[in-house]
Amino acid sequence: MTSAQIEIQLIACIVAIACAIPGTFLVLRKMAMISDAISHSILPGIVIGFFLTEDLNSPWLILLAALSGIITVVMVEYIQKTGLVKEDTAIGLVFPALFSIGVILIAKNAGDVHLDVDAVLLGELAFAPFDRLLIGGTDVGPKSLWVIGTILLLTLGLLIAFFKELKISTFDKQLAATLGFSPVLMHYGLMSIASVTTVGAFDAVGAILVVALMIAPPAMAYLLIKDLKKMLVLACIFGVIAALAGYWMAHWLDASIAGSITTVLGMLFLAVYLFAPNSGLISVLHRQKRQKIEVHLLTFLLHLQNHREKSERHINHLNEHINWHKVRATSVVNLALKNNMITIDDHIISLTEKGKIFTTEAINYIITNKSAAIEDMKERFFLFRG
Amino acid sequence: MKEKIAIKVDDLTVAYNFKPVLWDIDLSVPEGVLMAIVGPNGAGKSTLIKAMLDIIKPIAGSVEIFGKPYKKQYKEVAYVPQKGSVDWDFPTTALDVVMMGTYGSLGWIKRPGRQQKKEALEALEKVGMLEFRSRQISQLSGGQQQRIFLARALVQKASIYIMDEPFQGVDATTEKAIINILKELRKEGKTVVVVHHDLQTVPEYFDWVTFLNVKKIATGSVKDIFNDDNLTKTYGINYKVSVLQ
Ligand SMILES: Nc1ncnc2c1ncn2[C@@H]1O[C@H](COP(=O)(O)OP(=O)(O)OP(=O)(O)O)[C@@H](O)[C@H]1O
Ligand SMILES: [Mg+2]
User: Fold this and answer.
1) Can you tell me the distance from the alpha carbon of B53 to that of A176, in angstroms, rounded to the nearest whole number?
2) Which of A20, A215, A250, A348 is the most buried (most CB within 10 A)?
3) Is A168 on the interface with B (CB under 8 A)?
4) Which pTM does this prediction carry?
5) What keywords are annotated for this sequence in UniProt (chain B) (predicted)?
6) pLDDT digit string, tens, across residues A240-289
7) What ipTM did this prediction achieve?
């Protein structure tokens, strides 16, 4: 690897981590959309800042652009407070307006400078190593590495100092307020960090990737883990994985790095969404199918208990008698057999002792309306699940 | 007898989007009572306690906690919100939620330590939830979640406890457990204010009551004012207390 390659990957990883931290809280606050709004509406701030400073990495530009991010949040909240429209509508009203002001400003004034709409949306990570920071004539590394590195340190410092306050104001705003932690202050603090991070990252990776890096890694972590600290760490890890994998994908395909990272994020998210152990789609479908079979098993066992006469217990009769068509009769019978709840003797099915106890207990639970307890009972009786 | 006033509400008017939902409320809650706030849905009960807790800013009037504004007294007050007011899918455990009750005494930046954990465990024990301490909160039943909220209020070691419908959706056992803890708090001289919906149990559980329906209808001891007249004024239907009791 050349040093430029290493620098690009380093910048991508740091951007990913710097985005995942505020992103985790945005996801938990169900405010994912606001990051989209911020990332677009900082454009007028960037353009005006650029006219004033002529330097895309100037701290003044970053502050000015972050300010337009905050203005977006304030405007969204103001419109929402009138009670006339919902939050997502308010977001949809505000950010296209600000974004288009930015686009017009660029088109009118900055036609010949390094600032165009493509660069804003997609960034160009590949060029990041060419813009060096010189201190007293010595080259200390790419400028954007310093910018985003500083922002990451700031974010980490604030996260460590105010973790408890962030947690409580995210989980229970009202409790936070009654305990003397101003949720409004935490809210705007978080929004400021999200804005500053977006501005700092946009030059390197563009507005679209910033949003993807803020939302997708925390959303994946949220599906996998139920502990806030671990969720933060996992979100950072997902971000870094996507950044590195995306970089090499772009390298091999000779494609845009930001675009490739976004693609990897999308694929990763799809995988987690499908395969997450408890909340993933496959696991949910599996659980539903299992419950369906088990409900049929229970009706089957109840029928056996209610009808002692042989004709009612003949295997062919059961097929007609109970409404099987939704599940395969054999899978129900097999499940009962595997769990030692029935025996089959010359096509006649009988409940075993265990089957009888299970059925009686289950009826009890159903009658007393403690259906939740049935799951617990299944754990005790079943050797195999449906 | 001159008793100390725990909460004093003066000429309080609260509006959402300029539409008043509480009109000119005057109310004094004496220290050491177990008070129910009753009234129909939408009467402004939740709004009243949010205004007491400075969560909502009134358009007129004021609230004093032991003679001072809430901001100076927040350590004296513990709040149990309506269960639905938080996201129970939040990635955290029962113990962690209870520990949040200690954050107020910690103040900014300082992190909870061993002492806070010990207090939280004691509170969990008190509400009978110790064995669920490391459960993810979404995996608790509604009644268990309510107990967690109560434990969180207990660790605040406040003088005033304010609760919004703590009995909502809990079974008879949990309701008895909660009311016993509330009565114990009263015995320790604490003031407890509860938004309550089950009129039948008011005389059994509480010694003080406020009738509310946008305006304050009446406030006083259950013995004196829990009667047909006030119930009818509040709910607008003919109530017979004799039947209720
Ligand atoms: N955030 C809000 N914005 C606008 N109106 C609100 C808001 N919260 C409550 N209201 C209105 O204020 C009135 C009082 O509401 P509040 O929640 O205080 O009633 P409540 O007595 O607690 O009712 P419940 O018994 O249903 O809990 C209602 O008419 C309600 O629609
Ligand atoms: Mg209410």
Assistant:
1) 11
2) A20
3) yes
4) 0.85
5) ATP-binding, Nucleotide-binding, Transport
6) 999 999 999 999 999 888 889 999 999 999 999 999 888 889 988 988 88
7) 0.87
Atom of ligand 1 nearest to the CA of B47: 18
With an 8 Å Cβ cutoff, are B91 and A227 in contact? yes
| B46 ligand 1 Cβ < 6 A | yes
Could you say which of 1.10.3470.10, 3.40.50.300, 1.20.1250.20, 3.50.50.60 is the CATH number of the domain covering A3-276?
1.10.3470.10
- State which residues form the domain around B125: 5-235
| Contact status of A136 with chain B (Cβ, < 8 Å) | no
Express each pLDDT in A110-159 by its tens digit: 655 566 666 666 667 877 888 888 888 888 888 889 989 999 999 999 99
Does ligand 1 lie within 6 Å of residue B43's CB atom? yes
Q: Tell me: the pLDDT tens digits for B90-103?
A: 999 999 999 999 99
The fold of the A282-380 domain, in CATH, is Arc Repressor Mutant, subunit A (1.10.10)
Q: Compute the count of residue pairs across chains A and B with CB atoms less than 8 Å apart.
A: 80
In terms of Cα–Cα distance, which of B115, B29, B120 is closest to B66? Answer: B29
Q: Among B12, B46, B165, B168, say which to mutate for ligand 1: greatest number of ligand atoms within 8 Å of CB.
A: B46
Q: What is the SS3 assignment for A304? A: helix
Number of domains in chain B: 1
